[in-house]
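// run 5 | inverse folding | seed 20
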């Protein structure tokens, strides 16, 4: 019905196909080829450089996390060794106390040993607690790195 109405206003001979304007594509195609050949390498080299930098950073992160993982395995062992040394000093002090209790005689050498064991135990305990804190720090770092690697 709409077509019928248009034919009344404008005859069918004048309703011909719409002509498209001509665009000189030959010049545009030549320009594209010229820019690809001479100017396209800049962004490609930028992408390649970015990928290389990211690969290096990833490799460094992997090395650091491997080192931290080794440290995370060694620190608990060192801490346990320190606590075992603390216990050994406590056993020496207990044996000395038992000796003094059984014999009833306290000599100057025994007093010196008891003082030495007590001082050593205090120093060893401080170092063992320090090692425990290092263990917590290293394990926290390892979990952080693992969380970052997962995402």
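// decoded
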């Amino acid at each position: 019905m709409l077509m019928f109405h248009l034919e009344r206003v404008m005859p069918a001979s004048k309703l011909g196909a719409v002509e498209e304007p001509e665009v000189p594509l030959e010049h545009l195609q030549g320009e594209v080829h010229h820019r690809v050949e001479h100017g396209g390498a800049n962004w490609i080299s930028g992408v390649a450089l970015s990928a290389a930098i990211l690969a290096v950073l990833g490799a460094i992160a992997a090395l650091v996390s491997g080192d931290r993982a080794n440290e995370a395995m060694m620190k608990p062992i060192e801490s346990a060794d320190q606590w075992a040394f603390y216990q050994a000093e406590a056993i020496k002090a207990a044996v000395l106390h038992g000796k003094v209790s059984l014999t009833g005689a306290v000599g100057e050498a025994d007093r010196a040993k008891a003082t030495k064991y007590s001082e050593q135990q205090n120093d060893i305990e401080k170092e063992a607690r320090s090692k425990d804190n290092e263990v917590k720090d290293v394990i926290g770092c390892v979990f952080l790195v693992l969380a970052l690697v997962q995402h």
